[in-house]
Amino acid sequence: MDLLILSQNEVQELLDLDELLHALAEGFMALSEGKVLAPSRNQLSIPDAGFLLGMPAWQPGSNITVKLVSVFHGNQQLGLPGHQALMCVFDPATGTPLAVMDGTYITAARTAASAALSARLLAREDARVLTIIGAGVQGQSHLKMFPRVRNFDEIRVASLYLTDAQRLAATNSKARAFESYQEAVRGADVVCLCTTSGSPVIGLDWLSPGTHVTSVGYSPPGGELPREVINHGRLVVETRRAFEPPPTGCGELEGLDPAIGTELGEILSGKHPGRQSDLEITVYKSMGHAMEDLVAANLVYRRARQQGVGLVGGL
Fold this sequence. Notes:
Blueprint: E1 2-6, H1 8-14, H2 17-32, E2 42-46, E3 50-57, E4 64-71, E5 83-90, E6 97-102, H3 104-122, E7 129-133, H4 137-145, E8 154-158, H5 162-169, E9 175-178, H6 181-185, E10 190-193, E11 212-215, H7 227-232, E12 234-237, E13 261-263, H8 264-268, E14 282-285, H9 290-307, E15 311-314
Parallel strand pairs: 1-6, 7-8, 7-10, 8-9, 10-11, 11-14, 12-13, 12-14
Antiparallel strand pairs: 1-15, 2-3, 3-4, 4-5, 5-6
Helix pairs in contact: 2-3, 2-9, 3-4, 3-9
């Protein structure tokens, strides 16, 4: 059988970010309507090293996808990404393997795009100051994606190491690096948490009324998002399965009542309202759902076939 193989550079060229935002909006509505099949992700843990997650998904009208993603936070000391992934695509009628593609870029892009979609829905219309905490792969992706949903006048970047924040800020003329997380957060309209921290990195008292907060870090059993921010704000999730224990859900949400969370798809479909006042703090906590990989990988696969991109080999 013929198998399409796509490199990271090819995936990056094929994945249109504005098209991804639109497709994710459709995907989140389908997810909330029960039209996406995605079993709980499983986890293989390697002691003192990291873990590997398996994430299959399918919905009518699309190919089946399975993502294998490794999370090894110590890789940063080796000059390697903390998250690395492969995406596999299968025919839904026969189960025939169709493609294997880089999933590292897809993971970064779809995660930032989903967070940006939450900002499009929930950030105040007059939001002009964006703060990004974390200057790694997700910080880089957020800096590319968030200006697509709001016209920010000022972008603040802070990270564990100032040199990393300076390096990222240098890629955008509106961005500048901050030494202190607190200084970067105070007065911001949108605050993006993109760290690998297993403990909270911001305080509730740092946030101005009306701030929109996004958190995409995954570092169980803890996490970067403080419980006090979750309790005080209006919480939005991809799916209420985010409240299940890891590896399915988020460490920060474990033990909370799923009823406190509103799904993105419910806001997109009009089932639940978005922001309800200019003073409301809104919070988006990402678990990283396989639907997002499904949407992104199918966009890449279709465009690759249309354009004749990639290496075709036999199995």
